[in-house]
């Protein structure tokens, strides 16, 4: 077999996150996490972040799809599809209910022991994120979330406990899910999920808070990488970047340069994780604008010594930006510069569908960082319909995944990119992070539950279940 083809042990699987599927939000001493105070929104309607849990409001994470009690049944279905790996996250607040304790919660640790054993029973490799849009709520109310340097100690203590406990059960780890999402610091949801920053109406200092919080997270991540390698030298510890390549709206030089600045403003997170230092463009930006106020010489040393083993990425879509004359210094935050790209189709939620953008992304990351990549999220959120006979026909999902897998294989075979695995998002229907809906479905397995929280929670295999089973069986050669 050529070096430039998918290896035999390629990690095909699926991905989920604790707060979007486990439910059991208070069980066995679990503390509240930031996800537990977010209500359900809808397409175009933001989720509300409440002051603690408010009576009478609906919080989709509280029960989610009840994976906490049904994981055996669900993992059996993953095994039936032929999964080689399963990406999930540990709910930090199951291990440390408040986040600042010395001693972990044994019942929480035990749950993940059982879960990882159940995966291993079928030869499924767990791929584990330490913080997937997850922080104990107490760390927000008492310390202000990641704006506080103390969080570095709480996080590394948590990392040490789980690294030691699962030393022989887990090899693949990631630190912070989609750490670069907070680039758009005007989006309260992204600030809260990434960094536990809840700003109320006071957005004035949001940009500086975001850069400071992100810096502490990056230091904590580097410390965790360093620590993990000492606990088990075989650990593979990655970062997790939401890769949304940013295209220029036209061939006008101002549009091209605006897209370049937008890429810099988003992907410096990957530079720090993979190269161990801030890129010069960000150092210049910070020197000019007082935005990252606290960085020590020791921090810089830690960053340089804790570079990741691989780059985990999610890819859903590309984004297109245009220069605006009101923004002559090419500053980039997010939506204010985004324009419609007439050359790509859109999902029902308005997300562009761009498989070649995926191949472009894999090339871009490989060229910049020279590290192996792992695709830990990709997929299409869509409405599904259960037919009268109980079947679910989802050719749109198959089409999306087929085109993206083909693009990934092209990147490997034609462009020489090294990819370790592919875990499509939401391999079983779960709560949408962005909207809190159940009806935005990604799964190969349908879960009977609606946006108001009603349903039997019954699992049903969709057509895509049988399609993906064949994809895995053929190691990506039987896509049609
Ligand atoms: P949902 C924003 C932009 C790109 C990816 O997203 C994002 C988000 C947050 O909504 O999240 C990732 O559920 C994330 C998952 C999430 C998935 O993409 O909004 O890592 O937790 O569910 C899909 O459709």
Automatic annotation (TrEMBL):
Q: What GO biological process, any one, is recorded here?
A: carbohydrate catabolic process
List where this protein forms a coiled coil. none
**Sample GO molecular function, one term:** beta-glucosidase activity
Q: Which UniProt keywords apply?
A: Glycosidase, Hydrolase
InterPro entries this protein is in? GH, GH_1_N_CS, Glyco_hydro_1
Keyword Hydrolase annotated: yes
- Give me the Gene Ontology terms describing cellular component: cytosol
Has the keyword Hydrolase been applied to this entry?
yes
Q: Which domain of life is it from?
A: Bacteria
Q: What family is this protein classified in? A: Belongs to the glycosyl hydrolase 1 family.
- Protein name listed in UniProt: 6-phospho-beta-glucosidase
């Amino acid at each position: 077999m050529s070096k430039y083809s998918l290896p035999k042990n390629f990690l095909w699987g699926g991905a989920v996150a604790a707060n979007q599927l486990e439910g059991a939000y208070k069980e066995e001493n679990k503390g509240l996490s930031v996800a537990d105070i977010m209500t359900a929104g809808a397409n175009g309607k933001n989720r509300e972040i409440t002051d603690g849990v408010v009576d009478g409001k609906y919080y989709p994470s509280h029960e989610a799809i009840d994976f906490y009690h049904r994981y055996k049944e669900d993992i059996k279905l993953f095994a039936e599809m032929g999964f080689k790996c399963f990406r999930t996250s540990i709910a930090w607040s199951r291990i440390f209910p408040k986040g600042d304790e010395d001693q972990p919660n044994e019942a929480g640790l035990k749950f993940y022991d059982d879960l990882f054993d159940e995966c291993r029973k079928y030869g499924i490799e767990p791929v584990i994120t330490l913080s997937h849009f997850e922080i104990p709520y107490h760390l927000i109310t008492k310390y202000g979330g990641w704006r506080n340097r103390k969080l570095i100690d709480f996080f590394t203590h948590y990392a040490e406990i789980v690294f030691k406990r699962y030393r022989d059960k887990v090899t693949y780890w990631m630190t912070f899910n989609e750490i670069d999402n907070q680039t758009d610091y005007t989006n309260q949801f992204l600030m809260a999920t990434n960094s536990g920053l809840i700003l109320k109406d006071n957005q004035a200092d949001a940009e500086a808070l975001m850069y400071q919080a992100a810096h502490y997270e990056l230091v904590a991540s580097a410390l965790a990488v360093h620590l993990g390698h000492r606990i088990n030298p075989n650990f593979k510890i990655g970062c997790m970047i939401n890769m949304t390549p940013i295209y220029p709206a036209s061939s006008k030089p101002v549009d091209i340069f605006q897209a370049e600045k937008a890429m810099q403003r988003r992907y410096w997170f990957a530079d720090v994780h993979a190269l161990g230092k801030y890129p010069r463009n960000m150092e210049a930006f910070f020197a000019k604008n007082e935005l990252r106020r606290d960085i020590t010489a020791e921090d810089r040393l830690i960053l340089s010594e804790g570079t990741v083993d691989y780059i985990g990425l999610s890819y859903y879509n590309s984004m297109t930006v245009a220069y605006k004359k009101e923004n002559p210094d090419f500053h980039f935050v997010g939506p204010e510069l985004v324009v419609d790209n007439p050359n790509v189709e859109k999902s029902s939620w308005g997300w562009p569908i761009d498989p070649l953008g995926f191949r472009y992304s894999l090339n871009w990351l490989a060229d910049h960082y020279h590290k192996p990549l792992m695709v830990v999220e990709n997929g299409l959120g869509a409405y599904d319909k259960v037919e009268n006979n109980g079947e679910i026909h989802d050719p749109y999902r198959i089409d999306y995944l087929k085109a993206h897998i083909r693009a990934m294989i092209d990147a490997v075979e034609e462009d020489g990119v090294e990819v370790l695995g592919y875990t499509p998002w939401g391999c079983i229907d779960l709560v949408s992070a962005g909207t809190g809906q159940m009806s935005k479905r990604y799964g190969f397995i349908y879960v009977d539950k609606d946006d108001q929280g009603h349903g039997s929670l019954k699992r049903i295999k969709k057509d895509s279940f049988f399609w993906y089973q064949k994809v895995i069986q053929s190691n990506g050669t039987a896509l049609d």
